[in-house]
Amino acid sequence: MEYLDFELPIKELEDQLDKCIVIGEESDVDVSETCKQIEKKLEETRKEIYKNLTPWQRVQLSRHPNRPYTLDYIRAICGDTFLELHGDRNVKDDKAMIGGLGKIGDQSYMFIGQQKGYNTKTRQYRNFGMANPEGYRKALRLMKSAEKFGIPVVTLIDTPGAYPGIEAEERGQGEAIARNILEMTRLEVPIIVAIIGEGASGGALGIGVGDKVLMLENTWYSVISPESCSSILWRSWEFKERAAEALKLTASDMKKLKLIDEIVKEPAGGAHTNREKTFEIFKNKIAAHYEELQKLSPKELVKQRMEKYANMGVFNG
Length: 317
Prior knowledge:
By secondary structure, the chain is an alpha/beta fold. The protein is about 50% helix and about 15% strand.
């Protein structure tokens, strides 16, 4: 397990607990009481740290190297039923954007999401979760297929942004994202969106329009990353913590601003500390929201979705 700087007090206590257990096993000394005290202190420290997280610390947690990615969620909740589909039928298959059919129980879903890598090789293969235009066009192709067969769509957002390279611009990055936003507003099947890590800029919005938008507790959703915001305003990354505070990018901020529908609680310490529990919570949320949305006709779905987004930012003085 890797630890972030603010998690070091937890690491120290866990190390102490491990040593205490080893001493008990290697000698005849009864250390059970000491171990209990350390466990109690560990629980208290964990609660205290995660109860008072700053926006920047939540950004750090959203990028934790042990945090589960899109394919981890899909494989955990769909098992062997997941069938990945490839290509945009135009340029190529974008490895940063994955999608395919999978089942939760007896219900089929079209899963789409950005995928990051676990090490240097896979990060390059996945382009660090930054999709090219063909990635967004693949996502749209899969959404349209889902609509054709009446299959609900689930999108998982985890990206530092769409790929900003020259070749992406040449192939129409802006148009691809704009087209997805347009088509998603009028897609005639239920769409459930979940931010599972980073939700940055148009890269997130390209698969982010839905009937229900969920955010895991330790994720962020914003027009720009704190580092980029800091570098634009102060010509330095040193003010990233201040930028994170000002951007109002946490799940609780988004809920207050009515830009998302629900905050999904994570296990104490973040999704990476108890993956199985996180997957179970996530699966239940998807199933519950679909059960609610399937009662609506396609016309009602589109009408409610359009009204929801049209009302964002409206101010009555």
